[in-house]
Amino acid sequence: MKRDQSDRLLQLAYDLFPGAVNSPVRAFKAVGGEPIFIQKGEGPWILDVDGNRYIDYVLSWGPLVLGHADFGVVEAIATAARLGTSYGAPCPAEVELATLVRSLMPTMEMIRFVNSGTEATMSALRLARGFTRREKVIKFKGNYHGHSDMLLVQSGSGMGTLGVPDSPGVTRAAVADTLVAVYNDIDSVSSLFKEYSNRVAAVIVEPVAANMGLVLPKRGFLEKLRELTKKHGALLVFDEVLTGFRVHPGGAQAVFGIEPDLTTIGKVLGGGLPVGAYGGQRKIMEELAPAGPVYQAGTLSGNPLAMAAGIATLKGLMEEGTWDALEKSCQTLVTGLQEVASKCRVPVSVASIGSLFSVYFGGQSPHDWDSAAQGNGRHYARFFQAMLERSVYLAPSPFEVGFVSTKHTETILEETLESARASFALL
Description:
single chain; alpha/beta; Aspartate Aminotransferase, domain 1; Aspartate Aminotransferase, domain 2; seven-stranded mixed β-sheet; four-stranded mixed β-sheet; 14 strands; 38% helix
């Protein structure tokens, strides 16, 4: 694999960016080696600056459910751009995208567009506190909700990759009202409610944990969360930034039949452009300015380019047969990976739901952060590098999930499994 141009750019990047990257997990710290620089994306592939082509299962960390440079999405962006990139005023596309979202996630009766998942989660919790007039928030160890100060406590994903439990710069005061429970352990939540009962504004949860690898909720866990929050007058916030339109067109809440009070979404919502949103019951959302007293604003929120990309992406995903084919492709991949690993006598657990998957190197499938952290990161790193050498680009961290797009055809999946056979054999 050639990498002369990637190495040249990397040396320049080390002088320009901290750690040579603009987001930590891109730095390959968890898997060794150095990152590659991407020149182009097309369908299921990415092409680096040295001309190496890879089958891509990162897909910009999830948004590209229709693959790279999907014709409909690119045309929608180009058409919108010719009319202006941003107005700082309402535009028709905001209404169209919000209507689409509400048709897929009816619990989002009213919606506020923002520009990232981090912005969506921190804004939703400010709203929850304002609505309930309470200060405490319960989150789960290993659930990642963006990098706002109050939520950067025992997070998974990039924090786990770097081995940093909490970030310097986050003050004790910033996290004083953040309580941490154990994912899939309802007793840990009950204990916090017993201690803080009428002071808890909200419980925020990834309904399917996807930042400590892919960890599914135990049977009854989400249902009991819903019961507890109602009992204690707290709001239930589903962080579906990653799972929204990925585990099901209606999100994890549709899969498990749970109605949260507030939902945050992003990634697929923007089709590759920076978009986030939060929404929920009308009586809660109407506490937001200018309808109510809880303030939140954004200069580029609802900009026409992002709205156009989101509309084209969701419409493409809603075309007849598209979702079923996408889900089938993911299932074909994970079944194949599990079979290949078993034949090579490599102990792995391959989890999946919808179009998400992860490969866990270890014994039994993890059920929370502590068990996920017991996985063999060294084996994952070797597998990642072996797959990269064989033209397959996986997430450069054992705590991140993989994504399948509508462009991952049977041929592409078989190529991937051929690479996996050789890579697992090395272990």
